[in-house]
């Protein structure tokens, strides 16, 4: 691995150097180039030789004065976008660099690394006496840099756990931030009263303002660490939500305190007004967000002909929500978050798959690059600004920040724990408190302090100090500390493999049953909202409002449609799935010599299992990992494996809906005689489904298994991922296709009384009925054990064709037609 | 679409369910409201698609098995009684129940019954034995795609070897109980149902 890395690292270093040099040249060079400009128009306009209006010696020789300049350079024209691009590229290269050596980012959070690189660049710039770009004024930050970050937070927020825990989240973020700000502000003010520190000119309002800036924590960075220690989903979402909402609270508090800072006397009415304003700002922001979210959803209802610009609407509407909230002085952060949450659900159903992917990628990209830039500039600016250092103030700030956050979490948890189903333990609380790194918002707000504050430099320095301190110290140390606290008591080797497997089974079962039961107390409201949603909202906002199973939505979301396409390709070299030949082989062996397992083998097994067994309920965490898109590979694997059984229910469902809508057309199927034309039957079925995506999906799935037209697809024994179904042992295989004719007859008596429920009913019943068949010896042909590997893949397909509800005749036709050609 | 089953839960039914499963009155009503919300066809029973509509269950590796466990052998509809009967397995064992007299039938949420539920997840053909294949199927569902079949096969072999005491190359229910005797099944397989 070392040799592999060396050229890459060398290349990167080279790139870095080139980029640095380029940047410096630009900065250094621009002064010279600017002066060359006035020469050119002079040259071309007059014919006067040897005369120039400048005093310096002529830059160009005579003969070229009248000719067309072949090579020109006009730097000032492109200066701003050029420098911007270079900065962005530099920050991105830094990011690439970190990830080349993977281990770095595990131990040192990215923000640290970015600040470090920023510091280096800042040092270089300082030494050449260059000023950093004026990125960090209020205008640029609040209008251009903050929205992408917040949009990312809002868009990728896992809504269900969030709303389940919304009380807790709001409690910690709002009350916690208030507690922190007021606590830190008051204690700092107390410190300022001591004359010895020389801080007496900082009054209470300014202290409070400063405190509100530094209580904006960004615990999301610490979440990466918490993921590895199997943290409870509830705690996870509280940390995530807190990071999200205290941005909003901080910004609101900040604007309030800025206002107060200008006033010489603060009366109690002002305080009440401040509180009232707080609520107005919050609720107003949410309202605007919801409004724009619905507008975006409604717009995407009509965009099916202009798919290319679909992603644009997401961005424009959310940005609009942000700006309009800013216009009215409301909480723009809340506005854009609610807009994203509202919009996402409906938009993702209306737009095409590609647009959906594009939106996600662009949101992530913008957010990542903006945050990278912010941390980077933090490093740069640290070196280049004028600092005012006051030991007392800064040290006490740090101390109080720690103390108040810890106290706050403790007190808040004590108050709220009795109301929660899963109380926060002390370990959780410690994690929550210690994970309070300061982040981008804190930095930006510090720079936007109004100049009327007389000790502004000190406050800025203190902010930077606390950010760097928390990011470096807490960021680097949180992982070892958390891992230390979570030492496993039991020695893993004492666990038998049995215990490991069965406990994991049980955990999966439990999480499944919990999800099934829907364990949350706001259930009543959620139910009401879902009814409202189904009845009214979906009709208005969605283009194609069919009550789809959320599984279909999942399929589409995960682009499984594409995956299934690939699976169905002839000779598709699909998988990941290893061959399962051994399965049938094993059955034949009656006596196998007992294998001897060494301790080393067992340890290896433990290792394999712990690395590869699916952990429970990872989806929340996959969504909130800040630097990556949600990782749905595991979901995909599971869904692909289950897709046959899911497909069954999708088709049954879609059929049932069709059933409800047009019974008459369905009747046509039943009357199809055994000798009837299969092709026409399929055409009939296709047409009846219209063009909805759901039906396309189910049609496609069905077609891949059965359709005579796609013969090339259906012929092959695809190496599908081993789709798991309810197949027992290989010996007990439910009948292969050509024994199917029994099944329809068994359903004969029920045929005419066909209700929508028949299809799914038939399938499992066939299991037992087929088995009883086998036992009775009612089989016409002996059932040879399938030779080719994935019998269990094909079995369900054939069973599926049975209960597509399009009648027994269809089934018999297909099975007879394909019985021979399929590779049984 | 068929006759509309009564969607109201009568008091006698609640009492019966209470006796059979041990849930409290409020738990039963809450679970009933969950049942009705899952029951999109509104006919008083749930089918498999109703379960599969729950997205978290769809991406649960053992989703199919869990759903199957709700349906009694060969049936495809489950009514509320059946639903509660299955859920009763997951009720936490309370202390006062541990001292119930032996004459009473074993409550649904006893340790043995919980283990039986887990056992039945593996043992699809209900022959009271977990064969190597059944074990392999469940294992395959629970691991990612990176494990080869040979590895999985040897893990399954080892599992059976550890548990099998009578040499029939499969795990019977008693062997299953024995192998998990040190595990806190009561706590692992219990849900704190909200009151």
Automatic annotation (TrEMBL), chain B:
<dbReference type="InterPro" id="IPR011992">
    <property type="entry name" value="EF-hand-dom_pair"/>
</dbReference>
<dbReference type="GO" id="GO:0005634">
    <property type="term" value="C:nucleus"/>
</dbReference>
<keyword id="KW-0677">Repeat</keyword>
<keyword id="KW-0472">Membrane</keyword>
<feature type="domain" description="EF-hand">
    <location>
        <begin position="151"/>
        <end position="186"/>
    </location>
</feature>
<keyword id="KW-1003">Cell membrane</keyword>
<keyword id="KW-0539">Nucleus</keyword>
<dbReference type="GO" id="GO:0005886">
    <property type="term" value="C:plasma membrane"/>
</dbReference>
<keyword id="KW-0963">Cytoplasm</keyword>
<keyword id="KW-0653">Protein transport</keyword>
<comment type="similarity">
    <text>Belongs to the calcineurin regulatory subunit family. CHP subfamily.</text>
</comment>
<dbReference type="InterPro" id="IPR051875">
    <property type="entry name" value="Calcineurin_B_homologous"/>
</dbReference>
<keyword id="KW-0597">Phosphoprotein</keyword>
<dbReference type="InterPro" id="IPR002048">
    <property type="entry name" value="EF_hand_dom"/>
</dbReference>
<protein>
    <submittedName>
        <fullName>Calcineurin-like EF-hand protein 1</fullName>
    </submittedName>
</protein>
<keyword id="KW-0106">Calcium</keyword>
<dbReference type="GO" id="GO:0015031">
    <property type="term" value="P:protein transport"/>
</dbReference>
<keyword id="KW-0449">Lipoprotein</keyword>
<feature type="domain" description="EF-hand">
    <location>
        <begin position="110"/>
        <end position="145"/>
    </location>
</feature>
<keyword id="KW-0519">Myristate</keyword>
<dbReference type="GO" id="GO:0005737">
    <property type="term" value="C:cytoplasm"/>
</dbReference>
<dbReference type="Pfam" id="PF13499">
    <property type="entry name" value="EF-hand_7"/>
</dbReference>
<dbReference type="InterPro" id="IPR018247">
    <property type="entry name" value="EF_Hand_1_Ca_BS"/>
</dbReference>
<keyword id="KW-0813">Transport</keyword>
<keyword id="KW-0479">Metal-binding</keyword>
<dbReference type="GO" id="GO:0005509">
    <property type="term" value="F:calcium ion binding"/>
</dbReference>
<feature type="domain" description="EF-hand">
    <location>
        <begin position="26"/>
        <end position="61"/>
    </location>
</feature>
């Amino acid at each position: 691995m070392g040799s592999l890395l060396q050229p890459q690292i060398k290349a990167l270093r080279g790139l870095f150097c080139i980029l640095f040099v380029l940047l410096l040249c630009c900065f250094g060079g621009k002064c010279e180039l600017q002066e060359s400009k006035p020469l050119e128009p002079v040259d071309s306009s007059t014919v006067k030789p040897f005369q120039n209006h400048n005093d310096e010696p002529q830059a160009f020789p005579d003969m070229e004065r009248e000719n067309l300049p072949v090579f020109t350079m006009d730097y000032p024209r492109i200066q701003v976008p050029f420098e911007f691009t270079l900065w962005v590229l530099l920050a991105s290269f830094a990011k690439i660099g970190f990830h080349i050596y993977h281990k770095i980012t595990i131990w040192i959070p990215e923000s640290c690394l970015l600040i470090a690189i920023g510091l280096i660049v800042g040092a270089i710039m300082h030494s050449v006496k260059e000023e950093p770009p004026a990125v960090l004024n209020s205008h640029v930050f609040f209008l251009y840099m903050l929205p992408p970050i917040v949009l990312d937070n809002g868009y990728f927020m896992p809504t269900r756990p969030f709303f389940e825990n919304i009380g807790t989240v709001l409690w910690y973020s709002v009350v916690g931030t208030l507690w922190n700000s007021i606590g830190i502000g008051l204690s700092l003010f107390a410190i300022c009263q001591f004359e010895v520190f020389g801080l007496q000119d900082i009054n209470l309002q300014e202290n409070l303002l400063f405190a509100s800036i530094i209580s904006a924590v960004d615990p999301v960075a610490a979440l990466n660490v918490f993921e590895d220690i199997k943290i409870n989903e509830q705690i996870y979402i509280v940390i995530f939500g807190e990071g999200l909402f205290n941005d909003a609270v901080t910004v609101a508090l900040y604007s309030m305190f800025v206002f107060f800072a200008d006033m010489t006397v603060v009366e109690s009415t002002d305080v009440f007004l401040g509180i009232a304003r707080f609520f107005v700002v919050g609720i107003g922001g949410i309202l605007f967000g919801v409004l724009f979210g619905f507008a975006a959803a409604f717009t995407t209802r009509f965009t099916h002909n202009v798919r290319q610009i679909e992603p644009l609407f997401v961005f424009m509407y959310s940005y609009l929500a942000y700006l309009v909230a800013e216009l009215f002085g409301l909480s723009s952060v809340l506005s854009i978050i609610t807009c994203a949450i509202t919009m996402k659900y409906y938009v993702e159903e209306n737009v095409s798959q590609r647009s959906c992917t594009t939106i996600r990628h662009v949101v992530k990209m913008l957010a990542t690059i903006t945050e990278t830039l912010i941390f980077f500039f933090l490093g740069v600016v640290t070196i280049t600004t004028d600092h005012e250092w006051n030991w007392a103030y800064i040290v006490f700030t740090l101390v109080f920040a720690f103390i108040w956050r810890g106290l706050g979490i403790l007190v808040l948890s004590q108050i709220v724990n009795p109301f929660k189903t899963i109380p926060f333990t002390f370990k959780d609380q410690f994690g929550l408190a210690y994970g309070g790194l300061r982040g981008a918002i804190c930095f930006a707000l510090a720079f936007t302090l109004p100049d009327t504050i007389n000790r502004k430099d000190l406050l800025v320095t203190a902010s930077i100090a606390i950010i760097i301190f928390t990011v470096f110290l807490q960021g680097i140390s949180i992982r070892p500390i958390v891992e230390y606290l979570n030492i496993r008591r039991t020695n893993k080797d004492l666990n038998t493999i049995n215990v490991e497997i069965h406990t994991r089974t049980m955990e999966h079962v439990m999480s499944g049953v919990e999800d099934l039961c829907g364990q949350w107390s706001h259930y009543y409201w959620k139910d009401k909202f879902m009814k409202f949603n189904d009845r009214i909202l979906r009709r208005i906002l969605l283009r194609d409002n069919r009550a789809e199973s959320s599984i279909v939505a999942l399929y589409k979301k995960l682009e499984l449609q594409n995956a299934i396409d690939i699976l169905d390709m002839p000779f598709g070299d699909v998988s990941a799935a290893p061959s399962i030949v051994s399965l049938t082989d094993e059955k034949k062996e009656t006596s196998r010599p007992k294998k001897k397992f060494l301790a080393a083998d067992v340890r290896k097994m433990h290792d394999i299992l712990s690395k590869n067994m699916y952990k429970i309920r990872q989806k929340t965490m996959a969504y909130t990992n800040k630097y990556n898109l949600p990782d749905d590979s595991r979901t995909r694997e599971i869904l692909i494996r289950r897709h046959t059984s899911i497909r069954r229910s999708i088709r049954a469902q879609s059929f049932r809906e069709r059933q409800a809508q047009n019974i008459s057309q369905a009747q046509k199927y039943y009357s199809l005689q055994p000798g009837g034309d299969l092709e026409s039957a399929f055409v009939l079925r296709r047409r009846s489904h219209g063009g909805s995506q759901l039906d396309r999906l189910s049609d496609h799935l069905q077609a891949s298994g059965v359709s005579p037209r796609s013969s090339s697809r259906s012929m092959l024994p695809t190496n599908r991922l081993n789709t798991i179904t309810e197949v027992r042992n290989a010996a007990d295989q439910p009948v292969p296709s050509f024994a199917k004719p029994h099944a329809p007859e068994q359903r004969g008596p029920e045929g005419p009384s066909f209700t929508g429920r028949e299809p799914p009913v038939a399938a499992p019943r066939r299991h037992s009925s087929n088995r009883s068949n086998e036992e009775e010896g009612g089989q016409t042909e002996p059932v040879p054990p399938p030779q080719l590997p994935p019998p269990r893949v094909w079995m369900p397909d054939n069973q599926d064709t049975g209960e597509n509800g399009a009648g027994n005749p269809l089934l018999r036709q297909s099975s007879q037609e394909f019985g021979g050609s399929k590779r049984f | 679409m068929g006759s509309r089953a009564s969607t109201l839960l009568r008091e006698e039914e609640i009492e019966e369910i209470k006796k059979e499963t041990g849930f409290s009155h409020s738990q039963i009503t809450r679970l009933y409201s969950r049942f009705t919300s899952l029951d999109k066809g509104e006919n008083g029973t749930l089918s498999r698609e109703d379960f599969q509509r729950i997205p978290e269950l769809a991406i649960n590796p053992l989703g199919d098995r869990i759903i199957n466990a709700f349906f009694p052998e060969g049936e495809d509809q489950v009514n509320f009684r059946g639903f509660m009967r299955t859920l009763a397995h997951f009720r936490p064992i309370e202390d006062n129940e541990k001292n119930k007299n032996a004459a009473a039938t074993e409550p649904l949420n006893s340790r043995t019954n919980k283990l039986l539920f887990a056992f039945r997840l593996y043992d699809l053909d209900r022959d009271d034995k977990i064969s190597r294949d059944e074990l392999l199927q469940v294992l395959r569902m629970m691991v990612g795609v990176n494990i080869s079949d040979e590895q999985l096969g040897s893990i399954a072999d080892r599992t059976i070897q550890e548990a099998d005491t009578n040499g029939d190359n499969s795990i019977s229910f008693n062997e299953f109980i024995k192998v998990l005797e040190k595990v806190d099944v009561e706590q692992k397989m219990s849900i704190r149902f909200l009151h």
